[in-house]
């Protein structure tokens, strides 16, 4: 079990990188600019085409890193001026505190001060003031530990943390315009947070999401801080939910990667993919968004996806008896050639335990296929495909007669064009090899 942000677990950081990359890719598809106004549906769904999906997953622009939230904030220099103005002159209130005060400076006494005054020995104020000639009184002192300043501190800490994570993920882009802007924001946010005006203020006591007070709603400067807080908190909440459903998220990413690799063989009536604006238990892809039918060298292939099928209906409507039992294999989807009575069984694998030998995984999958074929599909040509990732994995293509596997690293620098292109090449080659082995 891998816990989020666990410094004792070396897998945690690499898994964080993988989750953020997958989430950002889905967010780009869900919230990016639409080619047609009708592509943005009123029900919180965006329609795309498979060319756009392929460009996001396998053919992104490698010159500059993708435009993400932290990059947009790093390039917003008006925001930087606002943050600096708050760091130099944060809003403060006069707090009522009780202090021992010289008699000539006493201006206000409350009930507590009066009780203290009554307990002191003496009959006159001078006698009660004692040798130090001081009394307990109410004083008004400037205080910066307010809700709006705590939210500002949390925001600065979040900018520093997110910017640092982004810089570590995009080391190859450190010299680019966006890389330099993010590095500058990381340095400045730390300087503003540690300044003498905000250093005494702590953001640890905040209860999220913060309900804004009057300054956060009406003050010109702090209203912008509240908007920035909402953006950063929403991004954090999305990542936290993705961590909870990380295996579902990886299965969704595998669908997109394989569909993108096969896109060139799609027929004109291929289904358009639909994406939710907000994830639902790790799912970004709306139902009935699988690609297909696909025209391959082996004939017309159909994509049968567990996410699109109702178990009750599938038992009644499955086109072949053996397809009713295919769930026993634990696969996420199947590529089926009805004319050849052949199928490609696909397993997305997100492994967070101790490293396993790739040969061991392939052999287990091959044994499962042999057992299933013997018991349920003796006349069907079956082949398996594993798309796996692990913290210790490198880009690797492996195969046995029954199963083909492609292993990907959890963390990779997309700015490293050579490594990223090699990764895409291995993925395409593995998928092509598996498809050819499946349909024969």
Overall description:
This protein is an alpha+beta fold. It folds into 3 domains: 10-89 and 146-244, no CATH class; 93-143, no CATH class; 293-439, no CATH class. Helix content is 45%, strand content 18%. It is built from 14 helices and 13 strands. It has helices at residues 10-31, 50-57, 69-74, 77-88, 111-119, 125-129, 147-169, 177-193, 214-218, 220-244, 246-262, 311-317, 358-375, 417-439, and strands at 40-41, 45-47, 93-102, 134-143, 274-280, 283-285, 294-296, 299-305, 333-337, 342-350, 381-390, 396-399, 403-409. A 7-stranded mixed β-sheet has the order 7-8-9-10-11-13-12, sandwiched between helices. Strands 1-2-5-6 form a 4-stranded antiparallel β-sheet. Helix 4 (77-88) packs across helix 10. It is elongated, with a radius of gyration of 30 Å. The mean pLDDT is 86.
Highlighted features:
four-stranded antiparallel beta sheet, 13 strands, 440 residues, 18% strand, seven-stranded mixed beta sheet, alpha+beta, 3 domains, 45% helix, 14 helices
What is the fold's blueprint, element by element?
Elements: H1 10-31, E1 40-41, E2 45-47, H2 50-57, H3 69-74, H4 77-88, E3 93-102, H5 111-119, H6 125-129, E4 134-143, H7 147-169, H8 177-193, H9 214-218, H10 220-244, H11 246-262, E5 274-280, E6 283-285, E7 294-296, E8 299-305, H12 311-317, E9 333-337, E10 342-350, H13 358-375, E11 381-390, E12 396-399, E13 403-409, H14 417-439
Parallel strand pairs: 10-11, 11-13
Antiparallel strand pairs: 1-2, 2-5, 3-4, 5-6, 7-8, 8-9, 9-10, 12-13
Helix pairs in contact: 1-10, 2-11, 4-8, 4-10, 7-8, 7-10, 11-14
């Amino acid at each position: 079990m891998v816990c989020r942000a666990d410094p004792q677990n070396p897998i945690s950081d690499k898994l964080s990188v993988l989750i953020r990359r997958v989430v950002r890719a889905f967010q780009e598809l869900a919230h990016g600019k639409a080619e047609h106004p009708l592509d943005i549906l009123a029900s919180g769904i965006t329609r795309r085409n498979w060319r756009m999906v392929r460009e996001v997953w396998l053919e992104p622009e490698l010159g500059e890193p993708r435009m993400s939230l932290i990059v947009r904030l790093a390039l917003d220099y008006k925001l930087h001026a606002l943050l600096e103005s708050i760091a130099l002159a944060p809003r403060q209130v006069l707090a009522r505190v009780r202090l021992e005060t010289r008699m000539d400076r006493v201006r206000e006494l409350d009930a507590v001060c009066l009780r203290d005054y009554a307990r002191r020995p003496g009959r006159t104020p001078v006698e009660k003031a004692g040798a130090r000639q001081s009394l307990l009184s109410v004083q008004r002192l400037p205080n910066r530990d307010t809700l709006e300043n705590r939210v500002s501190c949390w925001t600065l800490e979040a900018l520093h943390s997110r910017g640092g994570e982004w810089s570590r993920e995009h080391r190859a882009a450190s010299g680019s315009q966006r890389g330099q802007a993010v590095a500058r924001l990381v340095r400045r946010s730390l300087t503003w947070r540690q300044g003498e005006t905000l250093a005494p203020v702590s953001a640890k006591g905040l209860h999220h999401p913060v309900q804004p007070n009057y300054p956060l709603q009406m003050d010109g400067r702090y209203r912008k801080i509240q908007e920035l807080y909402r953006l950063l908190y929403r991004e954090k909440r999305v990542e936290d939910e993705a961590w909870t459903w990380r295996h579902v998220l990886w299965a969704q990413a595998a669908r997109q990667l394989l569909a993108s690799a096969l896109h060139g063989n799609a027929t004109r009536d291929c289904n358009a993919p639909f994406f939710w604006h907000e994830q639902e238990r790790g799912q970004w892809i709306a139902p009935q968004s699988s690609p297909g039918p696909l025209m391959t060298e082996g004939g017309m292939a159909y994509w049968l996806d567990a996410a699109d099928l109702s178990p009750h209906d599938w038992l009644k409507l499955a086109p072949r008896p053996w397809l009713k039992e295919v769930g026993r294999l634990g696969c996420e989807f199947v590529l089926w050639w009805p004319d050849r009575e052949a199928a490609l069984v696909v397993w997305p694998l997100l492994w967070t335990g101790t490293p396993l030998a790739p040969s061991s995984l392939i052999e287990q999958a091959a044994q499962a296929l042999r057992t299933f074929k013997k018991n349920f599909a003796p006349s069907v040509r079956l082949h398996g495909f594993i798309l796996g990732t692990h913290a210790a994995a490198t880009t690797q293509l492996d195969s046995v007669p029954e199963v083909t596997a492609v292993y990907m690293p959890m963390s990779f620098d997309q700015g490293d064009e050579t490594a990223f292109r090699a990764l895409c090449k291995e993925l395409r080659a593995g998928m092509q090899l598996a498809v050819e082995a499946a349909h024969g």
